[in-house]
Structure formats: C-alpha cells, structure tokens
Design a protein that fits this description.
Length: about 450
C-alpha cells in the first residue's frame, strides 16, 4: 500500500519539475483544445446529445445481463463465439489456447486498453508468440518499452525529435527523418506483419446488443488490416462497453470523435458481426469475443460508482485535468490514468493500495464539465475518499488523529487552550505532510473566539 502511494509521489514530483516534459504534453493538449470546438459545432444541442448518451449508457448498464445475453445470442447465430472471462488469468488462458491451437507465431494487435490492462504482449512473449502493436503511437511505445501514456494518444509525451532518435536507435534509420518519413518506415514494417500474422487481436469501442456486433473506430486503418488478413480474430473487450442498439452509434461515434480528437467522425468506422460467411473471400474465418469482467461487476454493484462504467474512453478528462497536465500519464502507474483512472482503478484493483489516486485531484470539476456522457467524476473521486475512510484503509493512526481533532473542534475550551507555539509544534511534528508543500503555519496568539469576546466586552 505504502509503496504504491510513495512511488506515485516520487514519479509525480519528478515529472512536475520536468519543464520539457510539461511543455510537450501541454503543446499536444493545446492542439487538442483548439480542435474540439470544430467537432462540437456539428451538434445543434450539445448538452442534449450528452444527456441522451448518458441515458443510453444508464439503460445499458441497468440491464447489462440481458444486453450481454442478447449480444452473445446474436453473434453466435452468425458464427462468432463468446468467451466470458471473470479475471485477467481467464482471459489470458483463453487467448493462449486459441493461439496455440492454431500454431500461432505472430499476432497483430490494434490499440486496446483492455489488452494493456491484462498485459497481453508480455504474456504472449513469454510463450514464444510475437505480438506487434499496429497503431503508430502504440508501436512507438512498444519500441521504447513503455506502456501507453494516454488513453487516446499513447505517445503524447514524445516530440518528433524523440521519435526520430528512437527509430534510429531501434531500427537503424536516419535520425533526421521527418514525421512523414518515420510514418512510412513504420508502415513498411507493419504491413509485412499483417500478412505473416495468424491471429489479429483488437478491442472494441462498443458492443452492440441487438445485432451481435462490435464497433471499432480509428484513424489509421490498422484495425481493419488486423481483422482482414489473419484467419482468426480475437476481440478483448470490457463488458461495460455494451450499447443497446446499432442505431445508437449515430450518437456515440460523433461524440467519441469530437471529445477524443476534435473530429466530426474518425476516418475508419467498422462494424464487425462475426467471421466471414460462406463464399466471402475477405475477413477472418473465426471470430472470438472475450467479455472481460476483471472487477467491473464490483463497480456495477456499487450504486454510486456504477456511473463510472458509462465511460467511452475518449480521454477528454485527461486533457482537461490540471494534475494530469503537470505529472503526465506514467506517474499514475496504472493502465488508466487521469480522472477516470483515479476513479475506477481503486475498484478494479485494490482500494487500499490505490486510494492515493483519488487524492490526486484539485476537485475543480473540469473533468466532469468535459465528459461526453456527463459522468460526475469529481464527485466519484470524493466518494472514493469516503469509502477509503469507511473501510479503514488509512490506518489506525490517522483514524485516531481525526477522532482527537473532532473532539477538540467540538470543544471551545479545548480550542482556546494551548499556546500558539504548542499548536505550531503539533502541526509540524504530527501533520508533517500538511507543511511539506505549504508555507509554514503561524498560529495567532489568540483565537478568533477570544478576540471576539474582547471586542464585545
């Protein structure tokens, strides 16, 4: 517990002091902020669209069992197979079994935060299977041995010079290559992998219940190539991604594009409804959808925190968060960073170990303001704090300290007792974290109550 919190503080302190790092992410977030109004202009009533999206997600989550059963039934009719995975181990075992049965040596993978959550690349590598990220940002991160930095923009913290140097070090290219030339280098390497791979792995932006389909939205076409060339397609997706109907995409796709990248709609939008049918030459011969729980039903069971499952992973809250802008994505030490990560990670993993993330917030409410499905993120962060106290994850010393503080605060006699020097000493020695990043406290010689009495007498 202590290690996780202290590691976060150490990383955050380093990154907050790194002016070059802050310059890069603020530059990229600035470009995002300038693009978003253009995407929002397509909505005649943006707030109504956001509320409708929230209502649809509410309906989907309130009837989740029925929605997922409908999805399984409809996909199965089209030749697809659904695998229910309660946790990371079950998901990894299912993927490995599919790969080994098909003697798979190479997997091409389109960007998926869920596969990052279960650490799929490392797992496959340990079993002798090469797993290649095909999204350019993810490919850059994989070359550098780093996890994604941002939900939507995995290499946001890297400049074009950083990437040119990385390619030079790892691939032997000229360090003076332009971004266009670097992209062509990556494309040549990745296109050869699409043809070699026996299995393609993707995530899904949405699970469509009434048609038994998954929806994938992207800007590079790599997800389409990852599902078109390999004979086997594996989808790994969190079970909260379900939406009731295919008609709901008319709202969710533009919302996701607008709040994710500032576009009206992304370049490639695909609806995949099972393997290729008889007589069809294109597409995979098999399609497996792994519905991952991994702690999501524990969030669903919480009547307050359930709202966090509405998230469509647009990344808007990260771009709006003043804490994220200063410390960056890797400081969080989790798959999901920023406000939404701080809300869900303590419940997906362990509240006691990750409660510190809920305090990594100014509670300014900007994350709630920009969320396309109107999740009350700042209120859920407060709720996490309440839950961590109620479950006594802060230790007996802190609990005792607050009991003493409450007793003193409710007694005017005790509040007036003690000299200013004694109060200064108590704060400096027993509440060290309070003064570590704040100016030194200097108590007044008299309390307000005492001064008021003197004025009234």
């Amino acid at each position: 517990m202590i290690e996780s919190g202290s590691a976060f503080m150490a990383k955050a302190t380093v990154k907050a002091s790194d002016m070059e790092h802050r310059r890069k992410i603020n530059f990229n977030i600035g470009r995002y902020n300038s693009a978003v109004p253009g995407g929002q202009a397509q909505f005649s009533d943006l707030q109504l669209a956001r509320q409708r999206a929230k209502n649809l997600k509410w309906r989907a989550l309130e009837t989740l069992d029925q929605q997922l059963e409908d999805f399984e039934m409809n996909l199965t009719k089209k030749g697809g197979k659904v695998i229910w995975a309660e946790n990371t181990d079950q998901a990894l075992e299912a993927i490995l079994a599919i790969c080994q049965e098909r003697q798979c040596k190479t997997v091409v993978k389109s960007k998926s935060m869920v596969t990052e959550e279960i650490h799929l690349n490392d797992f496959l590598s340990k079993h002798g299977i090469e797993s290649i990220e095909t999204d350019l940002g993810e490919y850059i991160q994989q070359l550098d041995g780093e996890p994604p930095y941002h939900i939507v923009t995995p290499a946001m913290h890297k400049s074009k010079e950083d990437i040119a140097k990385l390619f030079s070090d790892k691939l032997g290219t000229d360090p003076r290559l332009t971004p266009e030339q670097l992209t062509l280098v990556a494309r040549d390497i990745l296109r050869a992998k699409y043809v070699q791979a026996e299995v393609g792995v993707t995530g899904a932006n949405f699970i469509i219940a009434d048609t038994g389909s998954i929806a994938v939205t992207e800007n590079e076409g790599n997800a389409r190539l990852s599902t078109a060339f390999p004979k086997t397609h594996i989808v790994v997706v969190g079970l909260e991604k379900v939406i009731p109907s295919i008609t709901d995409l008319a709202l969710f796709w533009p919302l996701l594009a607008t709040f994710g990248t500032g576009q009206k709609v992304t370049a490639y939008n695909s609806i995949l409804s099972g393997p290729s049918a008889s007589g069809e030459e294109d597409g995979p011969r098999e399609m497996f959808v792994i519905l991952l729980d991994n702690g999501r039903t524990s969030i669903l069971a919480n009547p307050v925190q359930r709202e966090s499952l509405y998230c469509i992973r647009c990344g808007a809250c990260l771009n709006a968060c003043p804490v994220y802008k200063n410390i960056g994505g890797h400081s969080y030490g989790t798959t999901y960073s920023g406000p939404i990560g701080s809300v869900i990670t303590p419940h997906l993993k362990d509240l006691g170990q990750y409660k510190h993330l809920s305090y990594a917030s100014s509670l300014c409410g900007n994350c709630t303001e920009v969320c396309p499905v109107r999740i009350n993120l700042h209120e859920l962060l407060l709720e996490n704090r309440h839950e961590s106290v109620d479950e006594h994850t802060n230790g007996w010393k802190e609990g005792l300290s607050w009991k003493v503080w409450k007793r003193i605060s409710l007694s005017r006699r005790l509040m007036n007792a003690g000299s200013p020097k004694m109060k200064d000493y108590m704060v400096a020695h027993f509440v060290k974290d309070w003064g570590r990043r704040r100016a030194k406290l200097a108590f007044s010689p008299k309390t307000f109550n005492e001064m008021w009495r003197e004025q009234r007498m």
